[in-house]
């Protein structure tokens, strides 16, 4: 894996608290995260999901403490039609999730 991506993955593991939590977030097997951290290269689809989740979690942590940011990411969100942000991120709907982040930051009601 490219070193930059491996660092992002390691940061995501630290922020989420475990490789298992990252695996759930990316919708992959737990062993896959271990292999990516060691020496395996993720496919393009999983690399995009990794980038999206890492970016959104980073953005959330600018406003919320880590635990609150994680609850936001895995919780149901009215701005997203009661979908979970993490589910939309794994489907490539990053812009929708970022709009929900911005709505929360500005105090908009759903």
Q: How would you characterize the overall build of this protein?
A:
It is a single chain. The protein is mostly helical. It is 69% helix and 0% strand. The chain has helices spanning 3-16, 19-26, 30-38, 44-60, 66-74, 85-90, 94-106. Helix 1 crosses helix 4, helix 2 (19-26) packs across helix 3 (30-38) and helix 4 runs parallel beside helix 7. The longest helix is centred in the middle third of the chain and has 17 residues, at 44-60. The radius of gyration is 14 Å and the shape is elongated. The mean pLDDT is 93.
Could you list some keywords that capture this structure?
110 residues; mainly alpha; 7 helices
Unreliable stretches covering 5 or more consecutive residues: none
Helix content: 55-70%
Q: Count of DSSP E strands?
A: 0
Report the major sheet: none
| Silhouette | elongated
**H/E element sequence:** HHHHHHH
Separate helix tally:
7
TL;DR of this structure?
With 110 residues, the chain is mainly alpha-helical. It has helices at 3-16, 19-26, 30-38, 44-60, 66-74, 85-90, 94-106.
Spell out the blueprint of helices and strands.
Layout: H1 3-16, H2 19-26, H3 30-38, H4 44-60, H5 66-74, H6 85-90, H7 94-106
Helix pairs in contact: 1-4, 2-3, 4-7
């Amino acid at each position: 894996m490219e070193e930059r991506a491996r660092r992002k993955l390691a940061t995501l593991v630290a922020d989420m608290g475990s490789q298992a939590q990252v695996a759930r977030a990316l919708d992959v097997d737990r062993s896959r995260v271990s292999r990516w951290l060691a020496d395996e290269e993720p496919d393009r689809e999983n690399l995009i999901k990794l980038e999206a989740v890492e970016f959104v979690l980073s953005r959330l942590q600018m406003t919320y403490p880590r635990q609150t940011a994680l609850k936001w990411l895995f919780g149901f969100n009215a701005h997203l039609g009661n979908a979970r942000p993490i589910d939309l991120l794994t489907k490539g709907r990053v812009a929708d999730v970022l709009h929900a982040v911005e709505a929360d930051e500005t105090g908009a009601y759903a």
